[in-house]
Design goal:
The strands form three sheets. Strands 1-2-3 form a three-stranded antiparallel sheet, with no helix packed on it. A three-stranded mixed sheet has the order 4-7-9, covered by helices on one side. It is elongated. The two termini are 36 Å apart. The protein folds into two domains: 52 residues, no CATH class; 103 residues, 2-Layer Sandwich (GMP Synthetase, Chain A, domain 3), CATH 3.30.300. Helices cover 30% and strands 24% of the residues. The protein is built from four helices and nine strands, in the order αβββαββββααββ.
Length: 177
């Protein structure tokens, strides 16, 4: 099955994709006014709230390197998370369609950012490190190769300019005898 055929198959099975365009919306609300607004760089909090209809709110802030709080999500974390999660969901759907039984999946995504002279910057590279456990040893080759197809289909990866690599490890579930 080619990547195009796989995408067509996914679209047929996904009721949310009944139209050729799928729209998403979120609302981000800054909650960091400490009484002085942005009257000075150190006089406001970077805290915000992500509001998505019908879902729990998510509290975020800037990365601690940019005056944020360590215990809250930041845009860089969420960017990596969205790439990792999208890849995983496409990967699992491909495995299900190809008969590869995945019993566990975890990913440790990493990203490297560069900061320019004006304080802005960009991600230079992202690497996904998925660790997959499958039920049957004979599926190991297919399980490893499906990451390439998942990457080709991933909505988020296809929307990024940053290079995204994956370094997957496939393990076979240990059975008790």
């Amino acid at each position: 099955m080619t990547a195009v055929e796989a995408l067509a198959s996914i679209l047929r099975y996904c009721s949310c994709m009944s139209k050729p365009v799928h729209k998403c919306s979120t609302r981000v609300v800054w909650e960091g006014n400490l009484g002085e607004g942005t009257s000075g760089y150190a006089r406001y909090s970077r805290e915000y709230r992500v509001v998505i209809a019908g879902k729990p709110d998510l509290v975020g802030t800037a990365d601690p390197a940019f005056r944020g709080e360590r215990d809250k999500h930041n845009p860089e974390d969420l960017f990596l998370t969205s790439i990792s999660a999208c890849h995983m969901l496409f990967y699992l759907s491909l495995c299900a369609r190809k008969g590869v039984e995945v019993v566990a999946y975890a990913d440790e995504a990493t990203g490297t950012m560069s900061i320019d002279g004006n304080g802005g910057g960009r991600f230079e590279e992202i690497t996904l490190h998925p660790r997959i456990t499958i039920a049957r040893a004979e599926d190991a080759l297919a399980a490893a190769s499906l990451h390439t197809e998942a990457h080709e289909l991933c909505f988020i990866a296809n929307s990024c300019a940053v290079p995204i690599r994956h370094v997957a490890k496939v393990h076979v579930q240990q059975t008790e005898e």
